[in-house]
Amino acid sequence: MSIGSFSILVSVFENSFSNTLFTVGISGALALLASAIFGAVVHTSSVGSEKMEGVAKQIRRSAAAFLRQVSLVTALFVLIVAVVLYVFVDSDLARLQLGVWVEPYASGSFALGALCSMVAGWIIWCATTTAGGRSAQAARTSLVKALRIVFLGGITSGLAVVGLSILGLTGAMFFLVEVQDVSVIDILQMLIGFCLGAAVVTLFARVGGGIFALSVDLAGTKAQDAESSVEDPMTLMSSVGSGVGQSVGRGADLFESFTAAIVATMLIGVTTAWSESPDSAILFPLFIVGLGVVASILSSFFVRSKPGTKELFAALKGGTFLCAALVIVGSFLFTQNLLPGDVALGVFLALVSGLIVGLIVGMLSEYHTSPNFQPVRDLAKTARAGAGSVIAGGLTLGALSTFLPVFFVLVAIAVAYMSAGLYGIAIAAVGTLSMLAFTVASHAFGPIAENAGRVTELAKLQKQVRSRTDILSATGETAEGMAGSIAIGSSFLIVLAFFSVFLSMTSLETVDLTNPLILIGLFVGGALPFLFSSMTVDAALRLSARVPEWSARKSKASDTVSMSRRTLDLVTGVALKEALLPGLLAALAPVAVGLTLGTEALAALLIGALLSSVLTSFSMTNAGSAWQSAKRYILSGNLGGKGSDTYAAALASTTVGGALKGVAGSSVLILLRFMMIVSLLTVGLYTPTGFLF
After folding, report:
1. Quick check: 415 and 367 in contact, CB under 8 A?
2. DSSP string across 252-309
3. Binning pLDDT at 50, 70 and 90, where does residue 79 land?
4. What is the pLDDT of residues 332-345, one digit of tens each?
5. Dist CA 37 CA 89 (whole Å)
6. Residues 191, 498: contact at Cβ < 8 Å?
7. Alpha-carbon distance 508 to 498, whole Å?
8. What values do phi and psi take at 100, rounded to 5?
9. How many helices (H) and strands (E) does the chain have?
């Protein structure tokens, strides 16, 4: 049955493929429209007193200065890489020397991916800073109203990420099909460049932002003091790092994952032999993400909490489960009507396996990192024996929390493969990320709540308001941990899908691990995540030693606000420069191994990096979240409360947790996906054995 026969399609063009792209593009536009409406609701809510408005405006401007530098550095890097892609992928030196200029398809796709991701970053900045100040004002009235404002800020960000990814992909494909008349196979290979553009933005926004945030956290405590002011450089940088740096970085990270899952599935769909409906395997993931947009919008209206309750995370979970249920029901209808009858059920089972396992992984993260459950409470008790004990306990908990998530992801892989082969693994990744708008909203919840708490503190609001924003922050930390675990699980599936594409493109059927040269690639791949994460944390440590000196110059300046901005610009610039070297490592490592040892060794490198990255990321992320939750548990009045030796020990552990969760744990996944995308883009440069042998 042809995919063009379904009434869901908007019939505007003769080509059913183009009609599908146009239809799914409408869902992307719907996501952006809903994002704009939710953002307008937040913007029209009260910002509070004049002092609160002044504090929020100063944080907003400082965050804009931070993101502006990220954008400028990223744009320069994108320009350089685009030229390289044009010379070596779109064209070649011989043709250019003859004056033969070809269309910049791969380089243009790369630039478009970077542009869409950066625009999403600016929308996240706007939503985060706007919702932060207004949720602080809402907290003066009730916790329920504050929850609603924080969530609306998060869902505004999530829908923007999804909408821009869908519009970017479908727009690029539509242009190449309708205007340039490029074949579908060539178009999909060019979209790997779109993924690389998104990965470059992730590198600077997530890794650079993580280095910035950690260096500021390590550098000082002034921003946490009762007498801190909005003119203090440390206060501004702490607000930017915790509020915007992490939310924009995670948004870019998930934008890349979402895009990569779609592209990987379409690439595998090209090789899927569904003679009854040859285009359906390619186009099906687009329908699923379009369905996810509608499900996310509908579910967002049900994220509410009852007056008087302090357990807010249940509202987020309820909305997430409702969204999942809508996607499951809708995807069943889609598989039955869009796919051939002999494969429809298998694809549905594969998709649902990814979605359900994503929820299971998220709930396991909640169990291991929420103060409502015993593991974090037991971890908090170890703080009685000092910082060393709580740090050791957190590392143990992080290691323990790794097995079950990995086990369930492997179950999803097995179910997906048995149900629909390699295509099933790829569509399972799409299933995991089909609710991406909610995943981004959950992650953004924490930074927005932190922003609200900062406004409450600096505006010297009542203790009751601060206690409400503390509840919001605690909820945000749990939601952030859950979203992070879902992101890790989806990265596992995405890279496996891309790896199968790599094997197909290189005609590799097996990887001989008995060959010493292949083992070299395997162990180098396994070691690279450790090297990459250590480089990022070391960069933050070195930068943190310089921050107090730059911050101290403020006291000698007549214009403290201008000096604070200059300090912020200086720290941001150095953080972005520090992110460049790890980024070059991620780009050059697969090229070096592929050229010298060949495609089989490169495949082994990717396998080693996959195993190492997923395991370390789960462990580091959960340990960091558990330490943070243990501190919150003690801060709420347990085990001595604030000011006790127990609290001091737990506070020390969060420094280690910030390094593992905010920088190292997230950076290894960026390395993994970056290397995979670079390997696919440059696969034509390699021989089976490399030039050394």
Report:
1. no
2. HHHHHHHHHHHHHHHHHHHT---TTSTTHHHHHHHHHHHHHHHHHHHHHTT----TT-
3. very high
4. 999 998 888 889 99
5. 41
6. no
7. 14
8. -95, 115
9. 21, 0
